[in-house]
Specification:
Blueprint (H helix, E strand, L loop, with lengths): L4 H11 L2 E4 L20 H4 L2 E7 L4 E5 L3 H11 E6 L8 H8 L19 H7 L12 E5 L24
Antiparallel strand pairs: 1-3, 2-3, 4-5
Protein backbone atom coordinates (compact mmCIF):
# COMPACT_ATOMS: atom_id res chain seq x y z
CA UNK A 1 0.00 0.00 0.00
CA UNK A 2 1.31 3.44 -0.89
CA UNK A 3 1.57 5.89 1.95
CA UNK A 4 -0.88 8.29 0.29
CA UNK A 5 -3.60 5.72 1.00
CA UNK A 6 -3.22 6.54 4.69
CA UNK A 7 -4.92 9.89 3.99
CA UNK A 8 -8.17 8.22 2.91
CA UNK A 9 -8.11 6.22 6.17
CA UNK A 10 -7.65 9.45 8.13
CA UNK A 11 -10.50 11.07 6.18
CA UNK A 12 -12.77 8.19 7.18
CA UNK A 13 -11.72 8.60 10.81
CA UNK A 14 -12.83 12.24 10.71
CA UNK A 15 -16.06 12.06 8.72
CA UNK A 16 -16.88 8.36 8.75
CA UNK A 17 -16.79 5.75 6.02
CA UNK A 18 -19.06 5.99 2.96
CA UNK A 19 -20.90 2.62 2.70
CA UNK A 20 -22.87 1.83 -0.47
CA UNK A 21 -26.27 0.25 0.20
CA UNK A 22 -29.51 -0.62 -1.53
CA UNK A 23 -32.60 1.45 -0.85
CA UNK A 24 -33.44 -1.10 1.86
CA UNK A 25 -29.98 -0.81 3.48
CA UNK A 26 -28.30 -3.97 2.16
CA UNK A 27 -24.55 -3.74 1.49
CA UNK A 28 -23.43 -3.14 -2.09
CA UNK A 29 -20.08 -3.64 -3.80
CA UNK A 30 -18.09 -0.55 -4.77
CA UNK A 31 -19.79 -0.59 -8.20
CA UNK A 32 -22.98 0.53 -6.43
CA UNK A 33 -25.07 -2.20 -8.09
CA UNK A 34 -23.99 -5.64 -6.92
CA UNK A 35 -25.50 -6.79 -3.62
CA UNK A 36 -22.81 -8.42 -1.48
CA UNK A 37 -23.29 -12.03 -0.45
CA UNK A 38 -24.22 -13.07 2.12
CA UNK A 39 -26.89 -10.39 2.13
CA UNK A 40 -26.43 -8.20 5.21
CA UNK A 41 -27.73 -4.81 6.21
CA UNK A 42 -25.19 -2.08 6.89
CA UNK A 43 -26.72 -1.39 10.31
CA UNK A 44 -25.96 -5.00 11.33
CA UNK A 45 -22.29 -4.74 10.29
CA UNK A 46 -21.23 -1.16 10.99
CA UNK A 47 -21.77 1.44 13.68
CA UNK A 48 -23.69 4.06 11.67
CA UNK A 49 -23.95 7.74 12.57
CA UNK A 50 -27.23 8.52 10.81
CA UNK A 51 -25.67 10.16 7.75
CA UNK A 52 -27.21 8.94 4.52
CA UNK A 53 -27.84 10.04 0.98
CA UNK A 54 -27.64 9.22 -2.71
CA UNK A 55 -24.63 10.22 -4.80
CA UNK A 56 -25.90 9.43 -8.30
CA UNK A 57 -24.43 5.91 -8.14
CA UNK A 58 -26.26 4.40 -5.19
CA UNK A 59 -27.69 5.08 -1.79
CA UNK A 60 -25.10 5.31 0.97
CA UNK A 61 -24.85 5.47 4.74
CA UNK A 62 -22.02 6.82 6.88
CA UNK A 63 -20.19 5.23 9.78
CA UNK A 64 -19.18 7.18 12.85
CA UNK A 65 -15.80 8.90 12.88
CA UNK A 66 -13.23 8.20 15.57
CA UNK A 67 -11.43 11.29 16.85
CA UNK A 68 -9.00 9.35 19.06
CA UNK A 69 -7.84 7.06 16.24
CA UNK A 70 -7.60 10.09 13.95
CA UNK A 71 -5.37 11.90 16.43
CA UNK A 72 -3.10 8.88 16.77
CA UNK A 73 -2.92 8.29 13.01
CA UNK A 74 -2.23 11.94 12.24
CA UNK A 75 0.49 12.08 14.91
CA UNK A 76 2.20 9.10 13.26
CA UNK A 77 2.32 11.01 9.97
CA UNK A 78 2.84 14.64 11.00
CA UNK A 79 5.81 14.76 13.36
CA UNK A 80 6.18 18.54 13.54
CA UNK A 81 4.34 21.63 12.35
CA UNK A 82 4.77 25.36 12.68
CA UNK A 83 2.24 28.10 12.02
CA UNK A 84 3.47 31.63 11.41
CA UNK A 85 1.73 34.68 12.83
CA UNK A 86 -1.02 36.08 10.60
CA UNK A 87 0.24 38.29 7.82
CA UNK A 88 -1.58 40.99 5.81
CA UNK A 89 -3.87 41.77 8.74
CA UNK A 90 -5.26 45.30 8.36
CA UNK A 91 -4.50 47.85 11.05
CA UNK A 92 -7.16 48.94 13.52
CA UNK A 93 -6.82 52.46 12.10
CA UNK A 94 -7.71 51.19 8.60
CA UNK A 95 -10.86 49.53 9.91
CA UNK A 96 -11.79 52.64 11.89
CA UNK A 97 -11.35 54.80 8.77
CA UNK A 98 -13.83 52.60 6.92
CA UNK A 99 -16.34 52.57 9.78
CA UNK A 100 -16.10 56.31 10.53
CA UNK A 101 -14.70 58.14 7.49
CA UNK A 102 -15.52 61.54 9.04
CA UNK A 103 -13.61 60.86 12.27
CA UNK A 104 -9.81 60.76 11.98
CA UNK A 105 -7.88 58.09 13.88
CA UNK A 106 -6.64 59.38 17.22
CA UNK A 107 -2.82 59.11 17.09
CA UNK A 108 -2.79 58.71 20.88
CA UNK A 109 -4.70 55.47 20.55
CA UNK A 110 -2.47 52.41 20.06
CA UNK A 111 -2.61 51.02 16.54
CA UNK A 112 -1.88 47.48 15.56
CA UNK A 113 -3.40 44.48 13.82
CA UNK A 114 -7.18 44.45 13.80
CA UNK A 115 -9.13 41.60 15.38
CA UNK A 116 -10.05 39.16 12.59
CA UNK A 117 -13.17 38.17 14.55
CA UNK A 118 -14.53 41.69 14.05
CA UNK A 119 -17.10 41.85 11.24
CA UNK A 120 -15.90 45.34 10.25
CA UNK A 121 -12.48 43.90 9.35
CA UNK A 122 -14.08 41.60 6.81
CA UNK A 123 -16.04 44.48 5.30
CA UNK A 124 -12.66 46.10 4.64
CA UNK A 125 -11.10 42.89 3.32
CA UNK A 126 -13.98 42.27 0.91
CA UNK A 127 -12.48 44.84 -1.47
CA UNK A 128 -8.94 43.43 -1.41
CA UNK A 129 -7.53 41.00 -3.97
CA UNK A 130 -6.95 37.43 -2.82
CA UNK A 131 -3.17 37.90 -2.59
CA UNK A 132 -3.66 40.75 -0.09
CA UNK A 133 -5.91 38.82 2.32
CA UNK A 134 -4.67 37.71 5.75
CA UNK A 135 -2.85 34.38 5.82
CA UNK A 136 -0.57 32.24 7.94
CA UNK A 137 2.21 30.04 6.61
CA UNK A 138 2.08 26.45 7.77
CA UNK A 139 5.19 24.25 7.62
CA UNK A 140 4.68 20.53 8.15
CA UNK A 141 7.26 17.78 8.72
CA UNK A 142 6.16 14.20 8.04
CA UNK A 143 7.67 10.94 9.29
CA UNK A 144 8.22 9.61 5.75
CA UNK A 145 8.53 11.57 2.50
CA UNK A 146 6.32 8.93 0.88
CA UNK A 147 3.32 10.59 2.51
CA UNK A 148 3.90 13.61 0.26
CA UNK A 149 4.99 11.76 -2.89
CA UNK A 150 1.59 12.08 -4.58
CA UNK A 151 1.55 15.85 -3.94
CA UNK A 152 4.96 16.77 -5.38
CA UNK A 153 3.52 18.39 -8.51
CA UNK A 154 1.61 20.98 -6.46
CA UNK A 155 3.71 21.60 -3.38
CA UNK A 156 2.58 25.22 -3.04
CA UNK A 157 -1.02 25.71 -2.04
CA UNK A 158 -3.30 28.61 -1.34
CA UNK A 159 -6.10 27.24 0.81
CA UNK A 160 -8.76 28.72 3.03
CA UNK A 161 -9.89 26.75 6.05
CA UNK A 162 -11.96 27.54 9.08
CA UNK A 163 -9.32 26.12 11.35
CA UNK A 164 -11.82 23.65 12.76
CA UNK A 165 -11.75 19.90 12.20
CA UNK A 166 -15.23 18.62 11.37
Amino acid sequence: MRLKDEFSKLYELILGKHIRVTEDGYLLADDGKTVLEPRRKAKDVYQLDGGRGHDGISHFVMTSGNAEEFSQGAANIVTLYDISPYRNVPLRSEVAALENPDEPWDPEEPDGPADLDDYAVWKLLRTRPFADLPYAEIAVTVSDAGYLEHMVAGMRWATTMTGHVC
